[in-house]
Amino acid sequence: MGAYILRRLLLIIPTLIGIMLVNFTLTQFVPGGPIEQIAAQVQGEGDVFANISGGGSEAGGGSEELYKGAYGLPPEFIEQLEKEFGFDRPPVERFLMMMGNYLRFDFGESWFYGTSVIDLVLDKLPVSITLGLWSTLLGYLISIPLGIRKAIRDGSRFDSWTSGVIIMGYAIPAFLFAVLLIVLFAGGSYWKIFPLRFLTSENFADLSTWGKIKDYAWHAALPVIATSISAFATLTLLTKNSFLDEINKQYAMTARAKGLTERRVLYGHVFRNAMLIVIAGFPATFLGAFFGSSILIENIFTLDGLGLLGFEAAVKRDYPLIFGTLYVFGLLSLIVGILSDLTYVLVDPRIDFESRDG
């Protein structure tokens, strides 16, 4: 097992480099970089200055000097910006410098926030962890008992109508389900039961401990439900199919022949084998809930997390923040893949990854 883990750890670096190279290459062809973003922000100010200096027709109409003044950024200033942002260097050199810094976990500063990238990520991380963790736990607490019940009553009316509900839940995109929840329960058109924005109230600091817990749960209810809807459907069907595969195997039939009750057979023999794939997939399920729908859900509910931060960074073309968060997310995804394999071994020590080829 040690050699297998070592191989997986060594593969992290080239995989990360490949991920970053593909995304870095794509950004070279995307119009509207940070220089253009700054130019767009100051364009209105340039128009004002041009009007103060004499107006369009009296200053020479469409002359190059007037255009530069109206644009607000003379060529010298643009060159200074390119030098400051590093765009005066070839793309290959910029990529190599970036990866060298990232391998040392030096992500630099955000161009538009003026703050360290790592500080921004750490500041927004708790909100995204909240969505991912509670969504995953909610999915497991509901999906596992429901999946077991569906396996026991396979083909019954209960199995049929719950399958219909599950398929509907899987088919509805998380952001669309979030909008539906807002319309129904957050004052959109019907009932105003839950708040629409943020994870806490304005007077959160003044509340008692129990009051803070209730306020937090009250605000987090709709975002967590919206995030967990697709994972809930997948996990329920996975649990059901896992139990169906194990219920009729020889060891289960032997246990029944010895006179054990169905409940004892189910939870004393079948449960461990059937839950192997479900429990071992917890790290990947959490990561999927953590990153999967966070951008849209955080924007819809105005949650100041990594999803909203990444969206704003993409809009502003804040490349240090975009690539810094991408590097962190990619690294976490690769590590979680290794943790998933280790979880398989912990749940069932009979599994041996060393015997696999490659």
Kindly describe this structure.
The chain is mainly alpha-helical. It folds into two domains: 35-106, no CATH class; 117-355, MetI-like (MetI-like fold, Orthogonal Bundle), CATH 1.10.3720. The chain has 16 helices and no strands. It has helices spanning 2-27, 34-52, 64-71, 75-85, 91-103, 117-152, 157-171, 174-185, 209-247, 250-257, 262-274, 276-280, 282-291, 294-300, 306-316, 319-347. Helix 1 (2-27) runs antiparallel to helix 16, helix 2 (34-52) crosses helix 3 (64-71) and helix 13 (282-291) packs antiparallel against helix 16. Mean pLDDT is 78; it is low at 45-71.
| Large-scale geometry | globular
User: What is the number of independent domains?
Assistant: 2
CATH homologous superfamily classification of the largest domain: MetI-like
Helix coverage percent: over 70%
Largest sheet: none
Cα-atom radius of gyration: 27 Å
CATH 2nd-level architecture of the largest domain: Orthogonal Bundle
List the helices and strands and how they pair.
Blueprint: H1 2-27, H2 34-52, H3 64-71, H4 75-85, H5 91-103, H6 117-152, H7 157-171, H8 174-185, H9 209-247, H10 250-257, H11 262-274, H12 276-280, H13 282-291, H14 294-300, H15 306-316, H16 319-347
Helix pairs in contact: 1-16, 2-3, 6-9, 6-13, 7-9, 8-9, 9-11, 10-11, 13-16, 14-15
Q: What descriptive keywords fit this protein?
A:
358 residues; mainly alpha; MetI-like fold; 2 domains; cell membrane; MetI-like
Short description:
The chain crosses the membrane at residues 9-26, 125-146, 167-191, 216-239, 274-301, 321-347. With 358 residues, this protein is mostly helical.
